[in-house]
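Re: [ENG-882] Designed sequences occasionally contain unexpected residues at chain ends

Forwarding the minimal case from QA. Structure tokens:
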């Protein structure tokens, strides 16, 4: 193009797009490219980028929550195992207490029997003497 044609064509869309660095776009797209469509495209890209960033944040938050829940699950499994061990120990203690109670009951009944026997012996000892039987 000559300088004269460029000065006549200063307002043409091709020169404006070339100055803006968009001369590489196809002519069909350049003819439809207006400030409104550019603004709409920028807004649409901004919304899309915001949506993608929000989704990435949600994914990272969900991954963190899953890791935290898995750690809590492992902790609860350990707690359950510890509680089962404690339950076993408590059952052993309960069994031993039952055995001790049986032994105490046996000792208490033996003590009662001995007391009754001694009471009988003391009763006979404190009774007045009996007359002897004479032999015929």
């Amino acid at each position: 193009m000559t300088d004269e044609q460029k000065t006549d064509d200063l307002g043409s869309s091709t020169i404006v797009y070339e100055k803006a660095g968009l001369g590489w776009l196809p002519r069909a797209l350049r003819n439809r490219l207006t400030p409104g469509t550019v603004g709409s495209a920028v807004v649409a890209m901004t919304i899309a980028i915001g949506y993608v960033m929000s989704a990435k944040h949600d994914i990272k938050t969900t991954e963190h929550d899953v890791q935290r829940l898995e750690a809590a699950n492992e902790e609860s499994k350990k707690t359950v195992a510890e509680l089962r061990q404690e339950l076993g120990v408590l059952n052993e203690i309960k069994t031993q207490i039952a055995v001790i109670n049986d032994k105490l009951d046996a000792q208490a009944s033996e003590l009662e029997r001995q007391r009754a026997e001694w009471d009988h012996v003391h009763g006979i000892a404190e009774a007045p003497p009996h007359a002897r039987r004479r032999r015929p």
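QA comment: On inspection the terminal residues look reasonable. The chain has a mean pLDDT of 85. Proposing we downgrade this to a documentation issue.
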